[in-house]
Amino acid sequence: MTQASAPAIAEILADWLASADASALEPGTVEICRRIALDVAGLCIAARNETYVQATIAASGRGEATAIGHARGFDPFSAALINGTAAHGEDYDDTFEGGPVHSGAVVVPAAMAICEMEGLGGDRLMLATAYGAELLCRLSLVTPKAIHKAGFHPTAVFGTMAAAGAVSVALGLTKEQTVSALGIAGSMASGIIEYLAEGTWTKRMHAGWAAQSGLRAALMARGGFLGPRTVFEGTHGFFHAFAPTRKPDFVPLLANLGTRWVIDDIAFKPFACGTMTQPFIDCAIALAAQGVRAEDIVKITCDVGEGTVHRLWEPLAVKHRPQTPYAAKFSTPFCMAIGFLDGKAGLSQFSEARIADKQAQDLAAKISYVINPDDPYPDNFIGRLTATLKNGETRVLQQDHMRGGAHAPMSLAEVETKFVDNAIYGGWTADAAEAARAGMKDLFIARDMQLLRSLRA
Q1: What is the 3-state secondary structure (H, E, C) of 364-420?
Q2: What domains can you pick out in the chain, each with its CATH number?
Q3: pLDDT per residue as tens digits for the range 392-443
C-alpha cells in the first residue's frame, strides 16, 4: 500500500490508542470513568425487564458474557448489544455537551464484553473506557450539528468508531491493527433518527449496535482484515458520508490529545429524557416553585437553539401530544409539563398513563418556542422561558447550564444514589442494589471480570 507523506487522521489516533497508558490519566479522569461504568450498570438493571430489551435478547446468542441484570450468559457481541441497548434505552445515560453524544452506553458494553471474553482485568477495562469515551467525545466536535442535520444519530455513528478504538486499547493492538479497526468500523457505522417520526424504538438500540460493531471491527483487524487508512478524511470517507454539509475541522479532535481529557466534563443526567430539554425542565420546576399553578398560565415561550428544533420541538402539534412514552422523552413541551406538575422527570414519568394525562397535555399545549440566534448550543446547554400569566404578569426564568454537567456536576453520592434507585426500579432489592454499588468500586482493580457475574439476576 502506498502511503501519503502526511499521516492520516486514523494513523494519528492509532498512535495515541496503541500507546494507551494509565499514567496519562489524572485521578479525576479515572474517577469519571468509574462513575460512567456505575451509571451504565444501573441503567442496564433499570431497563432489564423492558419489552425492547426482551426483544433484543430474543435476537441474541448464548455464551459466557454478561448482560447486566440477566441470569444467563450471551456471546460477547450479543452482550454488548443488550447492555448498550439497555443503558441507552431510557435516555438517562451520560452525555457530552459539546456533541451531544452518549459515550458510556457504547464504550462500557464493548469494553466489558472484550475483557470478559479475553480474561482481561479491570486495568484494561479502565483504559478502554477512558480512551474510547475520549475518542467518541472528540469526534463529536469535528462537524458540530452536521451529523444530526444529515439524519444520523451521532452516538450511533461516532460510537462505532469509538468502540473499535476502545476494544483495540483493551486488546493492546498495534498501531497498524488499530488503523484497520477504525477503517473497518467506518463501514459498520449506522443509525438514522427517523425514530422521531412516531416515537419508535430504533434509537434505543444505537448504542448497543455501535458497541457490538466496534467489537467485531477490532477483532477482525486483529485477525488481519484491512481497513482504509483515510477512513475519516477520505473522498469517500466517514465525514463525507455522515456530515456532507460541513467541512470537517480536525483540530478539536487532535489538539492536546493525550494531555487534556475532555471526558472530565461529561454530564450525568438528572432527568430521564433528551439532553437539551433538561435545563428547560429545571426552569419549569422553578416556575412551579414560585407558586404558579398550571391554570394560571396563558402561555410559555422558550428561547432555543436552532439545532435542537427538528428533534425536540417540531412538529409542534405532535410534540404537544406525544404518541408514545419514548416520543415524550424528545418533546421539550411535554418534559417541561411533567417537570412543572411532578417536580421531576424520572423513569416513572414516561408511561402510557402519563402521556394520556389531560392536565399534562393541556399544559404542554401552552408551550412554544422562538429561535435564539445567540444560543450557545451545542457547546453549552441552557434554558430560558417566558411565562405569561392570566393576571397579565410575566415571569422569566433562565438556567445557564445543564445540571449534572461541568458547571454543576453531580456529586459521587448523587451518582451512587441514582445507581441504587435505578437498580430498585429494575426490580432489585435495596440490599442487592447497595451490595452491587459497593462492589463496583473495585471494578477497575479487579484481576478479571468475575465481578460482572455479581451483576447478573
Answers
A1: HCCEEEEECCCCCCCCCCCEEEEEEECCCCEEEEEECCCCECCCCECCHHHHHHHHH
A2: 9-269+434-455 (1.10.4100.10), 275-399 (3.30.1330.120)
A3: 999 999 999 999 998 999 999 999 999 999 999 999 999 999 999 999 999 9
